[in-house]
Amino acid sequence: MAENRSKWIRTEKRFPLPDYARHALKRLDEAGHVAYIVGGSVRDFLLGREYKDHDIATSAEPDELCRLFPDSVTVGRAFGVIKVPLGIAGEAEFLEIATFRKDSDYKDGRHPSKVQFCGPAEDAARRDFTINAFYYDPKTQRILDSVGGMADLRAGIIRAIGEPEKRFREDALRLLRAVRFSAALGFRIDENTAKAISAGARLVSRVSAERIRDELTLMLTGRAPAGACEDLMSLGLMAQVIPETVAMKGIKQSSLYHPEGDVWRHTVKVVDCLAAQNTARSMELSWAALLHDVGKPVAYSRNVGKNFNGHEKDGMKLAGQIADRLRMSREQSTVIAGLVGNHLKFKDVFNMREATLSRFVMQDGFDMLLALHRADAAASDGNMVYHEFCAGRFCEMGTRPSAAEKLVTGEDLLQLGFSPGPVFTDILKWVEDMMLEGKLKTKDQALEQVVKNFVK
Ligand code: ATP
Ligand code: MG
Fold first, then answer.
1. Over 60: is that where the pLDDT of 2 sits?
2. Best label site of 7, 74, 136, 271, fewest CB within 10 Å?
3. Exposure b/e, 107-128, CB count within 10 A at least 16 = b
4. What number is the average pLDDT over the span 121-150?
5. Quick check: CB of 55 below 6 Å from ligand 1?
6. Hey, which residues does 144 pair with through a beta bridge?
């Protein structure tokens, strides 16, 4: 059936291929095999977008692939996928080459238990979305479209290939990929595909925590994270992957500070503002934006609907649990939870002692905390006073020594004749405070002042 719809399309512009891809295609061609560039890079080329890496699909069967590419790593011999190491800095690490295949008998919602080698049109049918199933033939400079991908690309539609319910049952990761591609490309999800996502949202629980984490991270650090969050929520996927966020919906806030709406609406807006203000943002900061108010529903019910006091502490705990559940590293989890736990500190900055303020602004990762606060403020009442004050201090601090740079050490105090004891801590803290307040700049100055103030 798929063969009948197959169309070869001539491309107007040249698809510039890096040497490693050209060499691999040539080697396959010279050995008498059909070999095409497939998937994401062809899609991105047609859209005039930058592409991440190239994949090759070929008629060469697994044994032949191993023979032609002796350095390759076999990913799944039965599936006919190899990875050829490139050893090129800055480029993708591997080139993936896969034999044209038909997958069947998905038992675990992730891996086919049987594959059969076939031609490109059948290979296209096992791929996820129509716009991900283009094959570029470098010899003729034509693109094979056997599943109506070109029409969907032109119309900006993410459409599952074949019967959506079946395709999502086969592999539930596709549920999240649909939302990711829709957000990344600014495409809408086809109605039947969207219905199947809603109906099959629970299947996503079959996907490993690591894969869920990676897909969500790609969405949150990508081009349109707010749209992705809204789609995940409205399609019922958020309830499966981060159920804690669902409670944010419908929790009302003061319209004075939050004219944007309830806690979920505010969250989506913060995610959006962060992306607008920081096109390149770390995964930790991006996750913190999504989770910064995740403690509000808990605090709200603890405080019997009166206020959200303490929500940052509740949020810190929940964010840590979510990060751990999604198998983030200890460090990532700590950074995300820390950002959530500290996101309200800005309202105290005008009451802080100089040294406390300096420590606040000079803490590790303050740039991320500041970016989160800026987005939080922009997404609520727009009060930028705290941001401007702290941003100014942060710039200024760049020229002052950091708390980690100690002007005076315990060793220095011993040499000055002090006996080790609690007084050491007092003196070192005093020196650090004076340094953070900009009153001590050099070691000599500091030693002189220690003698003046502490030697009886
Ligand atoms: P990206 O720009 O994110 O790399 P991509 O389309 O290249 O997007 P990859 O994950 O690199 O996506 O996969 C390469 C190709 O393999 C896809 O274009 C698609 O044809 C196919 N593919 C990947 N994952 C799946 C899946 N879960 N189910 C079906 N086909 C898939
Ligand atoms: Mg890719």
1. no
2. 7
3. eebeebeebebebbbbbbbbbb
4. 96
5. yes
6. 8, 135
Cβ of 128 closer than 6 Å to ligand 1, yes or no, is yes
Q: Which amino acid is at 443?
A: K
Query: Do 447 and 383 belong together in one domain?
Result: no
pLDDT at 367 over 90: yes
> What's residue 90's pLDDT?
60
For ligand 1, atom 24, which residue shows the shortest CA distance? 128
Distance CA 194, CA 1 (A): 24
> Which contacts of 277-285 are long-range, i.e. CB under 8 A and separated by 24 or more positions?
277/371, 277/374, 277/375, 277/378, 278/371, 281/221, 281/371, 282/221, 282/368, 283/217, 283/220, 283/221, 283/332, 284/332, 284/335, 284/336, 284/339, 284/365, 284/368, 285/339, 285/368, 285/371, 285/372
Task: Examine the domain organization and report whether 323 and 257 are in the same domain.
Answer: yes
As for how many domains the chain has, the answer is 3
Residue numbers of the domain that contains 20: 7-152
User: Distance from the CA of 83 to the center of ligand 1, in angstroms?
Assistant: 15
pLDDT in tens, 272-318: 999 999 888 999 999 999 999 999 999 999 999 889 999 999 999 99
**394-404 tens-digit pLDDT:** 988 766 656 66
Ligand 1 neighbour 112 (Cβ under 6 A): no
Quick check: CB of 171 below 6 Å from ligand 1?
yes
Q: Is 384 helix (H, G, I), strand (E, B) or coil?
A: coil
